[in-house]
From TrEMBL:
Pfam families: Thymidylate_kin (PF02223). Gene3D superfamilies: P-loop containing nucleotide triphosphate hydrolases (3.40.50.300). One of its GO terms (biological process) is dUDP biosynthetic process. This is Thymidylate kinase. It comes from Actinoplanes italicus. Coiled coil: none annotated. Keywords: ATP-binding, Kinase, Nucleotide-binding, Transferase.
Length: 216
């Protein structure tokens, strides 16, 4: 029901089709299943006849890490510094979202977004950036409309860490995952998120998201 409150014009009277949101964002800590779910949800909506597409709004942190290792450093922060990495990530994610929004407007598609602006605000908080840095990021990201619905994939940090290890291309400490979870929950946007229990099987999580979208 939270979804209806956020999805703009009122839905058709009872019995009519529920209005499909134009922008759907999936957010949450690393390992919560954003990429997995955004892909599946986009595919399910497309199969149901909606012009839905998967869009990734990456901040590049994964690639910075790989580049750092290539040049003999341990990770992105070792190469670019903590502040440098945050500035780069904020800029790259801004560009990614600008591209996603442009494509959404041009193609009139339903964008199922893997991450959005709030992920950057949470990242800044989790990495201990100064409040000034978040204020600046919020100013730059204000250009982007709020998604019609934001799903927060709520996962236990222990479960997330196990998944990240199984995925095998990066690692996160428990301390960071807990801090990141707290950062999302501390955001002023958090009360408007539709919280999904993301500890279950991929199928259970997809079902919960589709149910909120009136597609189950
Ligand atoms: N519900 C789930 N149960 C078990 N494993 C999952 C689930 N969702 C995703 N995974 C796996 O866990 C890893 C992390 O998922 P991913 O979608 O990449 O998360 P994120 O994009 O939020 O970091 C991937 O290897 C993925 O296949
Ligand atoms: Mg991902």
């Amino acid at each position: 029901m939270a979804l209806l409150a956020q999805s703009g014009p009122a839905p058709a009277p009872s019995g009519g089709p529920r209005r499909m949101p134009r922008t759907i964002a999936l957010v949450g800590i690393d390992g919560s299943g954003k990429t997995t779910q955004a892909r599946v949800v986009a595919a399910e909506l497309a199969a149901a006849g909606h012009p839905a597409v998967y869009r990734q709004n990456a901040g590049g942190r994964h690639w910075f890490g790989r580049i750092a290792v290539l040049v003999g450093r341990t990770d992105a922060e070792d190469l670019f510094g903590r502040r440098g990495t945050l500035v780069l990530e904020s800029m790259l994610r801004w560009l990614a979202i600008a591209r996603t929004q442009l494509r959404r407007v041009v193609h009139r598609e339903v964008a199922v977004m893997d991450r959005y602006a709030v992920c950057q605000f949470a990242s800044l908080r989790a990495h201990g950036a100064r409040p000034m840095a978040e204020r600046f990021a919020r100013l730059a990201y204000r250009l982007f409309p709020r998604p019609d619905v934001t799903f927060f994939l709520a996962v236990d940090p222990e479960v997330a860490q196990e998944r990240i290890e199984r995925r095998g291309y990066d690692t996160e400490t428990m301390e960071y995952l807990r801090t990141a979870d707290g950062a999302y929950r501390s955001l002023p946007e958090y009360p408007a998120f539709v919280v999904i229990d993301a500890n279950g099987t991929p199928e259970q999580v997809t079902k919960a998201i589709l149910a909120e979208l009136g597609q189950a």
